[in-house]
Amino acid sequence: MKNKSLVLSSRMYLFAIPALIIYLTFWIYPTIRLFYYSLTDFNGLSPNYQFVGLDNFRQVTTSPMLTDAIGNTLIFTVLLVIFGNFIGLALALGLNAKIKGMGFYRSAAYLPTLFSAIVIGFMWTYVYMPDRGLIASLMHLVGLDGSNFNILGQSSTALHGLIIVAIWRSIGTTTIIFLAGLQTIDHSLIEAGEIDGCSQWNLIRRIKIPLLRSAITINIILGVIAGLSTFDLPFIMTSGGPGTATHTLMFAIYRLAFNEQRFSLAAAFSVVSFAIIIVITGILVLYMNKREVEM
Amino acid sequence: MFKRKVLFFAGALCSLLLTLTFLTGCGNGDEIVITIMASGARQADSKVFVDAFAQVVETQFPHITVEATLLPDDQYYTTLAARMASGEAPDLFLVQPRLGGGANSVFSMAEAGRIMALSGLENWEHFPQSSIDDMSFEGRPYAISSGVAFLGTYYNSDMFVEHGIHIPQNWEEFLTACQTLLDAGITPIVMGDMDSFMIQFGLYQIVANQVYPINPDFDLELYEGVTHFTDPIWVQAVEMYAELYERGFMASNTLGIGQAQSMQMFVDQEAAMTFNGSFNLEALTATDEFEAGFFALPANEPGKPLFTAGATSAGFAVSSTTDYFDEIIDILNLMTDGESELFDAWVNQPGSISIYSGQELQHDIFEDVMKLYQEGHSFYWANQAWPAGLNDEMSVWFSRIIDGQDVTPFDVTQAMQNHFEALIGN
After folding, report:
1. Residue A160 in contact with residue A231, Cβ under 8 Å?
2. What is the mean pLDDT of residues A68-76?
3. Which residues does chain A have within 8 Å of residue B256's beta carbon, measured at their own beta carbons?
4. Are residues A259 and B392, on separate chains, in Cβ contact within 8 Å?
5. What is the residue-wise DSSP string for A69-87?
6. Rounded (to 5) percent helix, strand, coil in chain A
7. Which of A155-164, B46-55, B300-309, B394-403 has the lowest mean pLDDT?
8. Could you give the C-alpha distances from A206 to A201, A209, A210, in angstroms and in order?
9. So what's the pLDDT on residue A220?
10. Cβ–Cβ < 8 Å for B284, B266
11. Which of A28, B170, B331, B345 lies in the 20 to 30 Å Cα band around A58?
12. pLDDT tens digit string along B94-116?
């Protein structure tokens, strides 16, 4: 007797085959190859490479490059998520008000998201430029000494300089997600709160933020993924420097693969990074989902 | 009925695909496409070589279509490495001499069997042996370069004249010149160390005077474990470069300035000098406000000869996966014949200093360094003998000195030695 599904004919699964083939070819196969290369001494050029077991992983885990990169990446991610969400939420609350010209303000808030990383990186290097940049010029204008303003040129501040740019770039998306969440809140709840004498702060704290849980979850997850996979800004703006002050996980992988021609070591680094990102994202998703269910 | 319709459409689709395949294959069998890839940037007022190459080749060889790609330096290295790894290398592409430039060095490519020997070219006798050697691996030439490139010191000659400074001939005179400028309220040197590769521009000039004249085989002996970066001559070279920062001769906050910004500052006369290469001639002399000059950084002691850091420029190599080796050899023979339009386009690239026999020096600004080069007072750029990535480690550690961290020149050389050993697998 044939097993016939009441929902979907088994023949319909055939239609998933093209997508499955593409997925297997362009995602699963390269990932498996990456794992394979991590066990060899492949340099990206020579077809004659040897199997070296776990040597690359031994090198990666004992290298200061990994600890530097993990440290920088985590700081970058945490600050991006915290400040990005706070500023995004504040902007969304402001942009949700009924004032004249709101369409313009909303467009303006979203504008930075439309620029490519190259444009943003190039622009901000001039904003940050010591003595002659936008910030230094403004400092001169108000009588401060802008000649020593050198945020990207000092290892103690370079990473923070990049984080500010990353927040500026992502704030549009974060704000839009919060704004969409705010607009789904039933207005009768706000009115009820107002009738009960809630202050504006309590309305935000007791009604709006709890009802924005889903938006907060999305923004945090997106922020964490963006932070952990950061490559473009350190590459464009600081070349990972000064020293290794802005080496992120992805930048370190790039440096190993393309600057040092150690593809197999870069592959091992990628595998370790992959594991770290999966673990962090997995824990976060589980935690956030649990919190949402509890609500 | 439905099945018939499906079969009909499937059959029609197959027929269409077969017809298209057939028609595509029926083109003129002699017509070929040659791909060429190079690094560089398009300038508004001059034609880049790959475009000229495509135009001339398509005119001279009507059956050849050229697909030319020009990429910025960083993107070029990445793209080439990725295309190599995937077996999709362009037919012709730029490689760096010796081990320079990492993955796209002629040694790495030839050793991996990625490029083909060019022994069969007709015009090798017009090139100096040093240039051929720089592009050879195991005695056979694998790439062909049109010229030489120098690292040097661009200077504002008006400022020098105004403050009575003559071109310095040794390290002491150079430091005195810097001090004179500083005392006059002028920033002596500007660098864009945020692009950390710029650290190499000054340091390699010092190494050409402090390391190689004492031991020309220093790098060869590095691989044998006889010499080390921690040897006093290399430490001394790093100390000398660090001294320029310690004594305030460099512009402040160079780690917050990129190469483009530093070049603009030089052009805007905010500093009297900058270390850079002959390859950036156009950008650094793009002004009528002052006359710019170029000299080899005199890192020599008084009474000792001055050496310049001159290196064979990047040259074209032929991919081992090309199907058109014979056609490409014909093109390369035309490109090196000394008289064709293609030859002119090749040797007259912006910033290029031709070493082809009988060619006159096009840029007077390089007269002094060219003289040193021709007299044999020249050494290659240090990284051309190093494994890929060692220059990055050097820049990372030296930038810590600039940043004011507790790092000494010896620490820089120690880090270089450690990294060198890791890279060569010791």
Report:
1. no
2. 94
3. 128-130, 150-154
4. yes
5. HHHHHHHHHHHHHHHHHHH
6. 75, 0, 25
7. B46-55
8. 8, 7, 7
9. 93
10. yes
11. A28
12. 999 988 756 688 988 898 889 99
B252 φψ region: left (φ > 0), alpha (ψ -120 to 50), beta (else): beta
The residue in chain A having the minimum alpha-carbon distance to the alpha carbon of residue B402 is A242
Q: Which residue has the tokens 């050198």?
A: A150
Residue pointed to by tokens 């500083």 = B182
Beta-carbon separation of A150 and B256 below 8 A:
yes
What is the mean predicted confidence (pLDDT) over A1-30?
81
Q: Which residues of B touch A56 (CB under 8 A)?
A: none
| CA atoms within 13 Å, Cβ hemisphere of A32 | 7
**DSSP for B52-94, written as a single string:** HHHHHHHHHSTTEEEEEEEE-HHHHHHHHHHHHHTT---SEEE
Any idea which of A158-167, B96-105, B227-236 has the lowest mean pLDDT? Answer: B96-105
- Tell me, what amino acid is at B387? P
The pLDDT value recorded for residue B49 is 87
**Residue-wise burial string across A157-169, b where 16 or more C-beta atoms lie within 10 A, e elsewhere:** bbbbbbbbbbbbb
Q: Model's pTM, two decimal places?
A: 0.84
Q: Which of residues 215-234 of A touch B (CB under 8 A)?
A: none
d(CA A140, CA A126): 15
Q: How far apart are CA B163 and CA A181, in angstroms?
A: 67
Give the whole-angstrom CA distance, residue A38 versus residue A42.
8
Q: How near does any CA of chain A get to the CA of B253, in Å? A: 6
b/e per residue, B21-37, with b = 16+ CB within 10 A?
eeeeeeeeeeeeebbbb
Is the Cβ pair A129, B392 closer than 8 Å? no
Interchain CB distance below 8 Å, B102 and A259: yes
State the nearest Cα–Cα gap between A256 and chain B, in angstroms. Answer: 8
What are the backbone angles phi and psi of residue A62, rounded to the nearest 5°? -100, -5
Q: Are B149 and B313 in contact (CB under 8 A)?
A: yes
